[in-house]
Amino acid sequence: MILKVIVENAVEALAPTAPATPPPAGVNTAGLADFLRKFFAPLFLVVVSVVAIFFLFTREITRFVQFIILAVAIGVIFYVPNVIEVTAKAIAGALGIK
Question: Per the UniProt record, which residue ranges are transmembrane (predicted)?
Fold first, then answer.
């Protein structure tokens, strides 16, 4: 099921569309964050689930808690709207790129 979602989102993102106007000069990143979110979010959930179950079965509670805190922090990046865009703009601004 997860593979199906990943393939559908990849095909949807790569499907050619007829532009109404000529493309602007430079790199077009419209929809890039949505594509990344749709592509990596299911993979992220699977990896987090498998690793968390591994830590629980091996009774490594300290590592489990550390992993869950890290997973929640990374999950916020994937699931909260505009975090990727704001972070990318902040990094680009810090590097002096407009």
Answer: 39-57, 64-81
d(CA 80, CA 75): 8
77 in Cβ contact with 70 (< 8 Å): no
C-alpha to C-alpha distance for 14 and 36, rounded to whole angstroms? 12
Angle at 68 between CA 66 and CA 70, to 5 degrees: 70
3-21 pLDDT per residue, tens: 777 777 777 766 666 556 6
Give the span between the Cα atoms of 28 and 8, in whole angstroms. 21
Predicted structure pTM score: 0.50
